[in-house]
Fold these 2 entries.
Entry 1:
Amino acid sequence: MSDADALLARLVERHAGRVADLDARLAAAGLGATCPPTWQTLEAVPPRAKSDLAELQRTRPDFGGLAPRSLRPSAVFWSPGGLTEPQVGAAVQRLAELLHDAGFTAGDRVANGFSYHFTPGGLLVHEALLQLGATVLPIGPQQTAQAADFLAAAQASAYVGTASHLQALMRALDALPPERARPPLRLALAGTEPLGDAIRRELGTQYGIRCLDFYGTAEIGVVAVGCAADAGLHLHPQVLAELVEPATGTRSAQPEGELLLSADADELPLLRFATGDLARLEEGACSCGRHTPRLRILGRVGESARVRGMLLHASQLRAFARAAGLAACRVTLTRREGRDHIELRYRAKAAAGASAQVANARADAEAIAQAFRDHCRLRADVQGADATLAEAEIALADRRTEAALEGRT
Ligand SMILES: [Zn+2]
């Protein structure tokens, strides 16, 4: 039995008959306790989307039918979107193991920059650090000046939270009087936010802090953490990841697509939990020495389209616009003569006057085309400046279905 099949069999054996949503979706696939899913048959089970949870929780008890009946969780959280979530013990264990693999040790004094109230992050990190034998400095996400004072006084050696918060803390430490001893900060788990990569690099070069990204959701906890090789986020071995085509829900032929996660837990066993995140999964040994698959999060589903077999995401357009010095860009996809047609429109950053702007855009057309190929791995069929685009507009308009309906393909 493969690791994936063993994980699925155990999850269903432990929870079939106790979790309403799980039972209903297994039944829809003709599966259940006597016939648990395997990696091969799992695709028949309808996914449960994170975006369904708010509606389910309004109409069904037991956290929308996802938790075992009559569960008594040790804590309940209140997450964005008005969701209640039970504390998940297995998530504490998984995070403790991921922190250990990332280099956190029992001797560390770790500043916990996540909030302890409402959302699960603060308590999850706190308990995982205790499990590891580390000492927690509960700083939370605010009061940066006091927190920097605390880090210096308590000699913090590591940090968990967001990269931008750690950056603010380091600047506040720089402002302390020179006679104050600096904390020996060497390691941070600091994800996942826009511009995170740039901030993590800066924290590494400027302060010598090895800064690792991570991925997780409120329902499943942290499931993947980066490594020294900076080659994606290593997935926890007890979490099963699948990638599906966002448009059809079928398994992706390419190693990228919407991320579905399955993992066991007493409080919230998840089977094919559709995260709404678009990811790439890389198999094979990593130069850090580990063999677990590595996850790269590309963005949110709904901001992407598959074009000529390649996934194009709005985050790539944003990176392209930044690199090409554009204020705005819009990609429109249509079908022409049986192939995907890409139209790229853009607006250059404001120059001295409108005429200078047009001249600029013309002169830079080749550089813009090159930047588009570099960042989007695609060649536009048509490109040109468009002064009517709104400032900072980054749009991916997929008109291929409309064209097909009108018989224009
Ligand atoms: Zn690695």
Entry 2:
Amino acid sequence: MSRIWTEGFMQVLEDIIIIGGGIIGTSIAYFLQSSDNFDGSVLVIETEAVSQGSSWGGFHQQFSIPENIQMAQFAQEFLGELNRFLSVEDKIVNVDYHSNEYLFLVENQDIPMLYSTNILHHQHGISVGLLDPEDLSQGFPWLNITDLAGGSLGLSREGGLNAERLRKAFRQKAISLGVRFQNGELIDIAKNNDLANAITLSTGQSIYFKTLVNAAGADSSRIASLAGINLPMESRKRQIFSFSCRMLLEKSPIVVDPTGVHFRHDGNLFYAGCVPPKDKDPNCSDTKIDYDLFEEYIWPILSYRVPAFQKITMEKARSEHYTYNVLDQSPVLGPHPEINNFYFANGFMGRSAQASPAIGRAIAELIIFGEYRSLNLSRFSFERMVTGEALFEHNALQ
Ligand SMILES: Cc1cc2nc3c(=O)[nH]c(=O)nc-3n(C[C@H](O)[C@H](O)[C@H](O)COP(=O)(O)OP(=O)(O)OC[C@H]3O[C@@H](n4cnc5c(N)ncnc54)[C@H](O)[C@@H]3O)c2cc1C
């Protein structure tokens, strides 16, 4: 932090302002402030304390884009050394990580994709088993395999954690290193020539900065628009329905049906979600639970796939929003090509928690060194929003 004269007044100049204290913003703040090559100030602005209440906190590795696989691998390395990274005053960091592999099921037309991603997985040293229908019926006798042509089962290093605990751990460590968090709602971004140089909060407070990072989750396109940038991202509602079933499945990975409907179990409860069909998936900000979506779309698919689910009791449901990149559902990372002190860390859909360590490290490297050092994520740059060159991930869960 330094001071500048502007409009006749002496003003504080923050080195970095991050908009968003979610898991992505806090991870970026942590990686910046923990770097030996950075000695500037980091201020995180957040509207309210957020919670990752609905996140499954799922971590899988079976992606179809190599960079997503590499980010998932770094997430596992990071979790393996969580205490070295995030412990404050030697207190143990517990994010409640538990192993649970993912099973992606495919129909005939997706067999070529299954094989090509399997080759990619082996090239990256991921332990994944290819299953044919007979393997599926032997391993998971409760599955209806009639229309299935195969599946891909993670054999290690997949699971889930409490994403809220991980966010808090990033936050506490970042604070211990000197990062400051401030409540406030960003309502304007001022520019001077081609650079953004100040934000205004709803209280009227202006804060000057050298670099601004947009980590505003589902609000990221609104934040970009304040700087005159069109970021084609929308807010999408995702719901998790939990239900009980009289039959307990002995051995159940997290199962992803070819339709994208997925479920996992935890104790006596099952949790299911989906990406709704396009005509039922508007840009939206309400959190109203849509039980019809479960009754009319999710449950018929579930009960076809697992006949034991024909008799279930609905327990509860939750809903939350995440950012949806309208172009290709992949993230946008790094500086804007013209306003190059405005950085994006947006569009992670249902993968923010597991992407957070790699994204924090990547954005910190870009800001500090002007380039990616550990993992080149330049294919996710803003340029493709201009060229329209889409980068689709085929094994995204949400
Ligand atoms: C149903 C569901 C299941 C999920 N499952 C998984 C999973 O299995 N694995 C996984 O990795 N991820 C999962 N996720 C994704 C993930 O955990 C969340 O989407 C995550 O909360 C997003 O993190 P974020 O940091 O990008 O944004 P957010 O947590 O939304 O944080 C955004 C921040 O921006 C701030 N902000 C916004 N606008 C302003 C403004 N104008 N001024 C100031 N601050 C502002 C907010 O206050 C907040 O601090 C799931 C998400 C959902 C909805």
